[in-house]
Protein 1
Amino acid sequence: MERTYVCEIMNNIESTILVRGWVHKIHDLGKITFVQLRDKTGIVQLVIQKELEQSLRLEMCIEVIGEKALNQKATLGVELLVKDLKVLGKTYYDVLPFEINNQKVTATLETQLDYRSISLRRPKTRSVFKIQEEIVEAFRGFLRELRFSEIHTPKIISSSTEGGSEMFTVNYFEKRTFLAQSPQFYKQMMVGAGFEKVFEIGAAYRAELHNTWRHLNEYISLDVEMGFIKDEFDLMDLEEGLLNHVFAHLNKTCATELALFNKILPESIKIPRIPLSEVQELLLKEFGKRSPAGNIDAEGEVILSKYIKEVYNSDFVFLTKYPISKRPMYTMPDEELTDMTKSFDLIYKGLEITTGGQRIHDYEMLKANIIKFNLKPEDFGFYLDSFKFGMPPHGGFAIGLERLTMKILDLENIREATLLPRDMKRLEP
Amino acid sequence: MERTYVCEIMNNIESTILVRGWVHKIHDLGKITFVQLRDKTGIVQLVIQKELEQSLRLEMCIEVIGEKALNQKATLGVELLVKDLKVLGKTYYDVLPFEINNQKVTATLETQLDYRSISLRRPKTRSVFKIQEEIVEAFRGFLRELRFSEIHTPKIISSSTEGGSEMFTVNYFEKRTFLAQSPQFYKQMMVGAGFEKVFEIGAAYRAELHNTWRHLNEYISLDVEMGFIKDEFDLMDLEEGLLNHVFAHLNKTCATELALFNKILPESIKIPRIPLSEVQELLLKEFGKRSPAGNIDAEGEVILSKYIKEVYNSDFVFLTKYPISKRPMYTMPDEELTDMTKSFDLIYKGLEITTGGQRIHDYEMLKANIIKFNLKPEDFGFYLDSFKFGMPPHGGFAIGLERLTMKILDLENIREATLLPRDMKRLEP
């Protein structure tokens, strides 16, 4: 007999079906036992006669053949009267590390991360990653539709020219190499190599000495780079369209999962775009908040987001026109505003989730800028060289996948939006 | 004016259109110049009057407004009479490193890899990666349709228990860590964590001291793991279905690119499944070829593939039932064949592209097997622990993306199927 997934039970016309999954809850009434069976797609109630019961334990893997019976009180509106039961995966514990069949979470986040293969079985925890998967799917679908190509670039790189000190080193056949902080140079190169528009969904590594609620040392970066743009506003248009598509896709594909977090995502978002200097002034005037030179700090991001929500009814805000001194050497200077660049950050609910901007595409201009930044052109060998052969105007941005997931669901810690987090202290599981 | 991609020119009802791209070929006839303009989607002929010509050079990025004119001799059947021309990206070279607008490749593979942003502009080279992108898309689409979930697992791992000596080490905040050889442990854990069926498209690292036509030190692994299977034949069924889908998808989406390689992929493949011991016997009897204990070698793979092609008319062959001693400790032993496992390899045109098999899912059995392999259960902490809480029967496989791409197109070197290869000597670009 073919397996039926729980979500298909109501639509299956057969009266006797086979289901598989984990024992989520047991309610022993003596002669009969009610068992909640959990599979990837949902939970169904089983009614099991004593003689079939086989001393079930929570989280055993079982296979069951049962007859559908209407029961208004069961979540699905239907339960299964079990005719046959097989144990597929035994358990070997005294007590579970923590309960996973209760609404209330009893374990600390650290304990949940220690037992990741248990904590992920909680439907609400699982749903974070269903939503994350669909964010990725929407990101990819939207960009492919616009003729972007997906690329995979190497993470072992030979020089630390882009990243400086905050990089992990790899011993590569006795050579000292690095883990890439971003695919920045490669995605630009691929635009120039005729791909025109590219994206990458890949790991990025930051050896930052921060152990906070919003930092990871290995994370998934949703990277975008686009050729033949007019200016940085093309990129903001693209990202705004992308986020609208992600939200619409999540509302469509993850309604159940979003409901567990009491979320319905806005149907149409329009993101205000404000120059950084105006934001700094506003923070000072309205909130007495001083900002560091050429940026705003984490506290400023939170204050600003509250203000933007009140005035513009938007969870997002683009900060534009960052100063040259605060952006990488490849950032396109602004023709109209002295000392400023055609770059932007995107703040979402008080947290930066994107940095982006137009890049310099002219070889001589890039070389001159590298020198202006007190760097050596010869250190940028293949990268700089690739600008000699006809590079279109281009730019791009990157979204931190875990940060976006965390903020969509208003999670408190980025580790809750990470399958298997890596931070300064955690390397396992 | 909105940009028109070359592939859209014929369907665009406007007579005057705007196109962008690179100068692919220049044919100067004095009063007029014929220029082939190449964009991401194809090549179109431009007819440019002297006064507009602006000393064009090969590979410049330009934007052109032109009027469509029928011309049977032009590849598209239509050419553009240029009304306006803008240079978007200048060139800064004396001579191009090699010609890219000829059928014939004049540069060595090493030179092509050195100048990756040039060599990828050759339409035939570019098409390798269009095909690779669609392989990934087909892989993902097929599995998502079957309720597989896409996961992203960390590549920095704390122990080398799975891989042994052939791993790269990373200095992680003064701790010695490793780059993952495969997501094996994590994909199994996620099956147990309720994801049931997972796949990952991610980097895998092998510090192998091989510099051959078929080895990479960083490559993309298409990993699959599936819960609630009956045996390893479920996995072979899955992979066969997957490859059929990939081929159908490529025939549909990459007809032009495949044609550059004179390829039409078979519409339906049925892959023979032969126990390893029978293959070894066959190689010895029919070809006088001795095989190493418990495997066949690279030469054996080539001889076997030729034989299979002749006898079964198949480019693929599954070798099944590898001995316990040659497979990892987590491989499920065969109940019927002493000392054998429920595992398989897939050989495609003389090259192994997949290793797979059913895994042990019972905690006590796995622990006993670890000891049998002279390993220490305590070294497998979180992995072994995750088997205590109800693990379904499961198994999986992995496909090397670059190997699959190489063999589909009959390329001679795996580096031709790699955007930016990493090998013992190459770390750039």
Protein 2
Amino acid sequence: MNKTIGVLTSGGDCPGLNAVLRGVVCTAAKLDWKVIGFRDGYEGLLADDGHMELTLQNTEGIMQRGGTILGTTNRGHFVRKGGSGGRGRLDPVVIARTKETLARLRISALVTIGGDGSLSTSQQLFEAGINVIGVPKTIDNDLEATESSFGFDSAVACVTDALDRLHTTARAHKRVIIIEVMGRHAGWIALHGGLAGGADAILLPEIPFSYDRLADAVRAREKSGHPSTIIVVAEGARLAGGREHYHAAQSGEYRLGGIGETVAHELDRRINRPRLTKEIRTCVLGHLQRGGDPTTLDRILGTSFGVKAVDLIAEGKFGQMVSYQHSQVLNVPIASAVRRQKIVQTDCQMVATCRAIGISFGD
Amino acid sequence: MNKTIGVLTSGGDCPGLNAVLRGVVCTAAKLDWKVIGFRDGYEGLLADDGHMELTLQNTEGIMQRGGTILGTTNRGHFVRKGGSGGRGRLDPVVIARTKETLARLRISALVTIGGDGSLSTSQQLFEAGINVIGVPKTIDNDLEATESSFGFDSAVACVTDALDRLHTTARAHKRVIIIEVMGRHAGWIALHGGLAGGADAILLPEIPFSYDRLADAVRAREKSGHPSTIIVVAEGARLAGGREHYHAAQSGEYRLGGIGETVAHELDRRINRPRLTKEIRTCVLGHLQRGGDPTTLDRILGTSFGVKAVDLIAEGKFGQMVSYQHSQVLNVPIASAVRRQKIVQTDCQMVATCRAIGISFGD
Amino acid sequence: MNKTIGVLTSGGDCPGLNAVLRGVVCTAAKLDWKVIGFRDGYEGLLADDGHMELTLQNTEGIMQRGGTILGTTNRGHFVRKGGSGGRGRLDPVVIARTKETLARLRISALVTIGGDGSLSTSQQLFEAGINVIGVPKTIDNDLEATESSFGFDSAVACVTDALDRLHTTARAHKRVIIIEVMGRHAGWIALHGGLAGGADAILLPEIPFSYDRLADAVRAREKSGHPSTIIVVAEGARLAGGREHYHAAQSGEYRLGGIGETVAHELDRRINRPRLTKEIRTCVLGHLQRGGDPTTLDRILGTSFGVKAVDLIAEGKFGQMVSYQHSQVLNVPIASAVRRQKIVQTDCQMVATCRAIGISFGD
Amino acid sequence: MNKTIGVLTSGGDCPGLNAVLRGVVCTAAKLDWKVIGFRDGYEGLLADDGHMELTLQNTEGIMQRGGTILGTTNRGHFVRKGGSGGRGRLDPVVIARTKETLARLRISALVTIGGDGSLSTSQQLFEAGINVIGVPKTIDNDLEATESSFGFDSAVACVTDALDRLHTTARAHKRVIIIEVMGRHAGWIALHGGLAGGADAILLPEIPFSYDRLADAVRAREKSGHPSTIIVVAEGARLAGGREHYHAAQSGEYRLGGIGETVAHELDRRINRPRLTKEIRTCVLGHLQRGGDPTTLDRILGTSFGVKAVDLIAEGKFGQMVSYQHSQVLNVPIASAVRRQKIVQTDCQMVATCRAIGISFGD
């Protein structure tokens, strides 16, 4: 059976996207299917030159690289009101043109790789009669519908590597170093990266903190003979008492005077009055966390997701999304998957492990 | 309550051992317990100068490093007949001296970190009345009693990194490159490393292969426009028809003329007769796989195991072993845990994923 | 002959300091000399508990690690008026106490590892009768007195690695990414890192730039089919026409709203009016550049410098500084070495190479 | 002026080849020249489909990758009698066909990137009237005609990284680990990698060693409290008294029972009789040293060489070879450059540095 399928990557990029693409292409090749890739997320569905054929040749060696050879975007005609998480409906004209494109290219099914917002779009396309298969992408690991997703392990590895670097200079100068990492609503990257990188304190959106307790933690370390302190702060970390810190429009962006700077400032006020006792420095990882080659885990996850997406097409299970559960790649309805966020439970084992070894959450 | 506990690392080293040690020490420190580390595996229990106190100070920064600051060994008085996997009984004199040492140092519980053979020893010590807690260590990931164990992800990362290096040179010269990796009885490292590293063929102990099919795979790649081929072979890979290749005494050792060389030779006979058409090269990773800094995953697993071991002591649950199951660190009886190996199921999803994207198992 | 020598590390830390320390200790050990290390730069000379013996045992494995096991500081009693580059004289009391400490510990010669300011201090101590040997440290590579110095290659490697990460995400989103790196007065890190990392534009203190030309470069890339642009900017980059951007007190610090942000803002004004055509993101590497394990080159340079320092003591050549010239480690008088900066010549071969392959300097 | 030039990569691959290619292409693009790349070394000059156009587009991002996108070979019609170092003359038919190809493609000059043997070929082509520019390639760093060459720093970094890995496992088990690295005639990789990686002994072709002295070094370490020993051995290391060890046809190949194994065996005989006192393990790095992404230095060197090659064409300086001397990229006649090898001088500063810190050369 000769079939043509489409594929696209949508939303913020993360390591593993190319692994999914290669997984789709290699699996399709064994079935003698043709694969059309759309450029720049859903936008490629509307542009005249918005697509390219993906082959074994032009996807060779891409699994090992970050980014996405198809390009991606957070903007455009498919973003509904309310931003990438918007609940608005797609413009009917956009849906009609999408169908036209797919018909013209004889594409019988479309694999969409994207986050929460992109999957909502996929669901609408499915409801409009398009044979869609979703592949979840969340570098923050905050989708309830899948236990693991590619990109997360690579982002954590980037944080861990940064902490390894910062430890040596922090110790040499007996400094406090604050490192701001991704995580608007869920603190998984901060939690995993902080634990693996040997942080002394971790500030999460899920566990409200106070500056006084944080300052206590720094002083307690000093007293016990540890003159340097490394603090990992998720960009969405929240103060106890409801004060909000998060004000960025987009995860992973470098922002002027983000929460890292604020924490540095507040800590400075509490520790270095009346006189300087401890130098404080800040580091914002920003886009470094999105880049780089994927880790082994993310290559395996991405590839497995791509293979499963093609399997689902072969089985005709449209409107479904690939999902990792209990060490297996399964499928769940897209509809039931979107809008349910997975956050760090404050009483979970990993938080308890952190506390057991003396990591402070500033609470 | 002031308590003293002991800890030791036994068997082949792997990344993450130091993370366990630091996890034990930090958790004990919060409880005001003293930790005594024994040197060179169980042997430290017999030597006069076989121990050292482990403190927050001398374990600072060790989580991030491979190896074990306590030293370890595969040999000595605690290795029973039949090698590390031997089923013999410990010498009663050895047990008596062990008890003496623990009594002299007022050690009320002992954490043993080791593989299958070491855990059998732990079980015997427990049966002899010693308060033992086991922590599983298997770089090969082949213990049934725990879904994951530290060291494995780091070993796989080493294989993946090696494959990334070999791809560029293989392509430049259009060569076949064979890379021999750890895995005597279970092919997990070859399977994960091969998939993540973009191998074209993977040979495992669990899936018997034939040289003719392997040669077919190389020729098929050539025909489809891929002039280079990367083959990952586990040291315990087996030929269909029962012929055995494995003949090393110790996993991870570099062996003269191991299976990698044999595969190269047999492939050469099949491909390069009557004339050379394809250069073949071999690479044996050996001990490189055991060394290096642990990955984020192995640091987290190792730390969590160390914390759990102290928790189990606090709860008095002796004769138990730490175990990772369904995303949780739990405990299981040591007795039920040893001797049950976890091997690659030939019909598992990961093998199917490999086949789907065109990886050959030589079968 | 039984001798005791002292050693200290001063100023900002950089990879390779521990290699120097180990080089000193190993060489001294072969001569049966004792080595005393002073903590926290020169400050250790004044504190009661400011020193520790350095031995083969406690320096084992340190060459491979960043930071300095002795600690260091940019502040304290030895910093003259005008900051680290101050030309003031040391307080005579401080000199007297230093001599006392050295006499009490029977230290016959002192190796000081530091930058420009620290070497000025060394020269004053030498003039006051102390047997000083200087070892130059400049992560920025901006000391005229030595062709190469340890730490620089590691800092450049950090920048290159960051660029590798940013390329994938920049391409995926067709963005402009600006990365701010160290280099207040000399642009060596930006130049080497930018060339090695495949930057499209590099802004240096030595080559004044204009925002209009920089915007032209971004547009020219777009037109020629390269929708993403990576710009490396040294923290001391200067605008043509004399406007200054640099305003940080300390190299390597993360600063709120540094030049990276300013460039992003000015570029945004020129490119994204009247409507957004290109997203712009900024990344500040900051202290990441100082941390991490030293590269092979920095380990070799650091070790060679440490060995040479002990050689100079053995030869009684005090007041001299180790220096790398024409592939050899030599010595030059400290007096002639300080205060002469090595900056990028605008007509040098490396700048010409950058221009030849199309890198813009915004001029 | 519209011009077409050719370029090819010949001999064993090494990191930095793609940087040269990109340097050539980018520089040519600014001059509006067309670049034709020949595949598989000189062989591409004879094959009908042996070439491809190189453009800014298809060379984007290649600088950062090892290998060569053109392919290369050590075999074929251009290899003279006596192997890659053979002094024989090229077949006149081969020269005639080469000229034909160049004429047909209107190629006015040819850049050849290769080692000693390839440069000899280039010289013959130049003498036959072809406008050749040579670019030296030697991963072993053993060409007298250039102080530095790309690929070497990357190979050393690979060795250093391997030593970092082996140290942790060697210490954990108190073992002797022998690591065999490239270097048939010159020991630069072993010397630099051994020093940077913290080796305890280094065996070079240039400094004949004895097994008894090597065994002494291992015993001396044991006695001084260092139970593990790391020995780096160049594949061409030689025994004192003229006995030869080297017997491989090709640098970088993995060979059955190479010198690493021999050293292990001989050391075992001297140390472990009458009973085992120290486990010995061997590791052969082989092709891992050729692969991987180039270091910053190799990217800069490679790019600079490519730029210079085009400059030389623009100046009409044919028969010349690019060369790095005294921190500058210059040119020298190819004729004077070939056949002169650069080896380690036994009394050079780096060897003295190694001895000063206690590294044994087994002599």
Protein 3
Amino acid sequence: MSEPIENPPSDGLAEADAREVEPAPSWQDPATPLPQWTDLGGEVVHDSPWMSLTRHRATAPTGRTVDYGVVRPKSMATGVLPLHDDGTVTLVGQARFALGNYSWEMPEGGAPFGEDPFDGVRRELAEEAGLEARSWREAVRMELSNSITTERAVCWLAWDLRPVATAPDPTEVIAVARVPFMSLIAEIGRGAVRDSLTVATAYRAYHMAREGLLPGWLAHAMLTRV
Amino acid sequence: MSEPIENPPSDGLAEADAREVEPAPSWQDPATPLPQWTDLGGEVVHDSPWMSLTRHRATAPTGRTVDYGVVRPKSMATGVLPLHDDGTVTLVGQARFALGNYSWEMPEGGAPFGEDPFDGVRRELAEEAGLEARSWREAVRMELSNSITTERAVCWLAWDLRPVATAPDPTEVIAVARVPFMSLIAEIGRGAVRDSLTVATAYRAYHMAREGLLPGWLAHAMLTRV
């Protein structure tokens, strides 16, 4: 237990922004009041430049009061799947400390709150993959683990790619691979690519290619290149 | 700062299990040594029945040493998208404390380490959606946020459904909706369904329906019912 929370959590701005753009699905009855949790008070138990963890007493919609820990990352997770004209994609490989494994992913990085996530993801595409793109389309917006964290992600597809000089992050040793889009889909199915942003964005890219939501020549290359 | 870690983290078993089933993708050269992080030592700074947070000194593959906090949930995230014969799916709505919002999702829950995740997800399907299923297929396995957590998820598709009696969780007030599968896809595209497990599993279900990986009658119903 350490200092009480005197100000809104550092992701307060991002939460407010997000609420503005959170539509309700068509099947939710607008006349029915939504159940709510009540926060009885919290304190910061861990704080770093990347995240804080707060512990709360909170009353559930059922009336039951519990201790609730919330992990609050200080950035928006961003990612981009770079789609080459020939139906291949660029992926990056790196050692991940938390799980102690090696992970192949699309270029990703955290955009600190206050930075436009689109600026952040363009920087990651250059730093990690050595690419810039003239065409972008938003692919997915997700809440990554909504029972214990406030972490959000926004991911794009990008095409009309060209190489740019890279400037790697000082804690990253990055490998780069360029593989057919359908090989990425197959390796996700085998469990060889497991990063949630990459998994969701790759299947979303398949959906967009199949449903006419990407240029026809690009969708054709993605779905037929093996 | 509190007690040092004297034993492996409580998710050590799950991590060992996972490594056994983590294949490498076809493009990874088996002859090239993989870069690795070195853990110089850690301590538990937060511990609850649901997760711990450990703080480490760790040396990156580049040689740079940093402080690294790792969130370690004590369960495997599980979820199931219940596919009805008529091309509809059952979703559940609930208030989420961490983000302070209301979330529509497929039935989900944490399977504590030591419990078979498949037993856990069958329980959630009954408790949250009042359903049981005779046919199951694994859809996605993901690492939810691999730069700060060890959290993993495994999600299924289930069909041949029938109703069972429900026994709700004491902190959950659950709403249930049955909607066309393609309405779920559309609401994800609008940002009205944002849970990462649901997003990834829904697009994966679309991929499986399109690629002949589900029974033809079910795929037809999913893709045509509006």
Protein 4
Amino acid sequence: MKTIVAGVDIGGTNTVVGLVTKDGECVGQTSFSTQSHSSFNKFLEQLASEISKLIKSQSIDYSLSGVGVGVPNGCYNTGNIVDAVNLKWKGSLPLGSGLESYLKVPVIVTNDANAAALGEMLYGGAKGMRNFIVITLGTGLGSGIVVDGRLLLGSDGFAGELGHTAVKAYGRKCGCGKSGCLETYVSAPGLRRTAFKILADSNEPSALRNYSYNQISAKQIAHLAEQGDAISLEAFEYTGAILGMKLADVVAILSPEAIFLFGGLSNAGRLIFEPTKRHMEKNLLSVFRDKVQLLPSGLSGENAAIIGAAALIWQDLDNN
Amino acid sequence: MKTIVAGVDIGGTNTVVGLVTKDGECVGQTSFSTQSHSSFNKFLEQLASEISKLIKSQSIDYSLSGVGVGVPNGCYNTGNIVDAVNLKWKGSLPLGSGLESYLKVPVIVTNDANAAALGEMLYGGAKGMRNFIVITLGTGLGSGIVVDGRLLLGSDGFAGELGHTAVKAYGRKCGCGKSGCLETYVSAPGLRRTAFKILADSNEPSALRNYSYNQISAKQIAHLAEQGDAISLEAFEYTGAILGMKLADVVAILSPEAIFLFGGLSNAGRLIFEPTKRHMEKNLLSVFRDKVQLLPSGLSGENAAIIGAAALIWQDLDNN
């Protein structure tokens, strides 16, 4: 019987489950709506049942070695989800222990950015690297930090909250309750906020002036920027400047050999990479200049989150 | 024959050498002027000779196991001092390999803040802690970061340059060539700069108005603040606000269980601790609130730097 690991990516809308081999290949996948259940226990029950069904549906006979779960506000140390803003169930949710009691295999939980970082190290562009950072750019900004070959978890398992470091005192309101957090500037919604501020301040004609705030997406702003829309281009320049300055600070603290940009906004390619790299270099202490690579994720987009989550277990099996 | 380790603290003015036992006791000490020699090699020669003489002068027969050196811009990975702004010898100086060839024992070099952090872990207030940070507050601001029981060195050995992260774009000129670095606000000279800015903006009577910029020290500003001088008190409040905000960001990234303030400015006690703690808590992400201790160093001030430097070797011997 071949051993297999389940990788789970819990998002506010969908939960995706995949079966991942030791080589990082996703051999089967399914998904279901995350919040269709009234209680967290019912959700847990369905998650366990979906994993079991997925294994049974394969043509090969697999034995499940463990489940890795990436979820916003997932805590590595406790296995709990704590105060996740994008889930309707509040407080501390015992995801790890709950799933273990259903499936009788080890479950490791962490936030989605940490999972992405482990996936990058085992199967992506960070193979062989000992010190690197993965920045996830989506509806928020997450970060997974690897120090000396190991995930940086901190004293309570919550390290890596780069998205909630300060850009500006009394800056933009953040979902976390604070103001001026990095993710209010650098994320898909952050880009939109920036575009609308620039639009309001300038006289420049722009296709953006025909969209409502609720109509336009970061992807569309990227599309307009590619067509030469000046305000959209300026919004990317500003976003890259803020991210680049913050990454220069992060380099001064952690001295990584590479920083990977992962997810949604990173797909804008040169539009986000070029200004970010330029402003990072400009703000780096001289000892770090021209040393740190800024790279796109080496994981294929569609299954990246699942493969990263499964890597939590495969790395653990490797180390034992 | 009893084994002993030499701890060396190289400052811009004096170099202090001590012999430190495994229990962190300093049994002998000497010092000499750092920059009296025209060449770095002559300095190395004297350093080696001072260590040998110090061992011979002891009543007990000691065998030297190694030398740990704390020096600004000292690189753990290479053993070199790189572009130290407070030394007259420029470029990359081969301190580790040079000293090894004189003394024929292992030499470990790192910056003074990393040495302080190891000292704190082995002999000070961080005994038993796995994740903590030491902030050195003197003429600059240094930081030594311990992650999961090990010094965070980063890919090139230069991690921990918190003093050169950004407080303000286009802020105060820094010795590193950048502007707005944390250490231009939070350090002994930073406090003086702040006091003189507040003094210029306000009408408040203050004893500070009788001193020239070159006359007044951070220690004197602390003394005036203790006597109730309003501008001096406001300078500490501002310094603590800047440090507290930055520490909240550092906690979000690293999630330490404690942060220690070490050296010069930390001796101002409540004047610096109280506003720093208050502004740190105010800016923390909710998941980190009321969790992180802000503590004075547990090492006795006078020999702390030497004991920390020696800890580099003692920890290494312990791990082998």
